[in-house]
Amino acid sequence: MIQVYAIEDGELKDLPHSKLKKEDDLQRWIANDPSVLGLDILVLGREISTDFRGRIDVLGLDAEGNLVVVECKRDQTPRETIAQLLDYGSWVAALSTKQVHELAITKLGRPLAQAFMERFDSDLPEKLNTTHSLIVVATEFDASSRRIVEYLAQVHQLSINAIFFSSFNHAGQDLLAIEWLLDQEEVVQRAESKTSAPWTGLNYVNIGESKDRNWDDMREYGFISAGGGPRYVGSLQKLAPGDLVLSYQKKTGYVGFGSVLDTAVPVDQFTVAGRPILESPLRATDFGHDVGDASMCEFVVRVKWIKTFGLSEAKTFPGVFANQNIVCKLTHPATIEFLKSYFPISASD
């Protein structure tokens, strides 16, 4: 069970657990802002009726066009909730691309492509729901239920996970703490590996050209970066020396191929030729945003670029692999074959 402490007069004070005034509040909070759970999804609706007389608490669509089921455990036992979640999964898995579009029109009142563009600032994938994710939200699980979720996710590579929440009250302020049972990114990647081509060792990296970071700076000083919160930096921090990366700029194409030299560090700790990079001439006007705040500042990974192109020369084609994640495994065969014509990546396949 999650425990939270307040620091008062230099001492730790154990905050007692409290109960949500309305359990429906949690479902509403998730639907209004799924990022409270760390989820980057477009919410299609609440209380979605299935063909099995059940109602999905929250149904969303992720940046790759796959459905995400979120179920909040209320008065059911953990095992009953897992069984219900799997039942919903069997219904979701059967939904075609056409049916997902029809569901979105009904629930959102506008075309899915429009809502998707507004949410992710990218085009809706042509084929939807090639896989799906199941998430149960609960105050706690017994040991047996935890083992069931872990077994389904780790052995059978089903994209299923649990989020535990605890509510507290301190000085008249209601607090909510959230914890995942498993690393959600790893759960999704394992599930996708069942239907994807074997990983070649290539990593897709979203460079995110903006005032915070500039591709020409990355080319000149040898790095990739991300910032703005743990959800953006987390996957970048998993890159290790020797990892191969292909950099992509949204709506533009692939622009670089290189090898990671060092793990991620906060921007104020990154140096170029012994000099702090923030003292170097930079094109990015706000590369030093939130410096000193490890939760929000830019994190930088040193890269040895093997071949790069300017943004105006980016390499792309209709149907090229693109993803909202900062870093993910690149397994898309057509994209890899296409990029071999422009980058020396043959040795890595």
Automatic annotation (TrEMBL):
GO MF, one example: nucleic acid binding
InterPro entries: tRNA_endonuc-like_dom_sf (IPR011856)
This protein's name: Putative nuclease of the RecB family
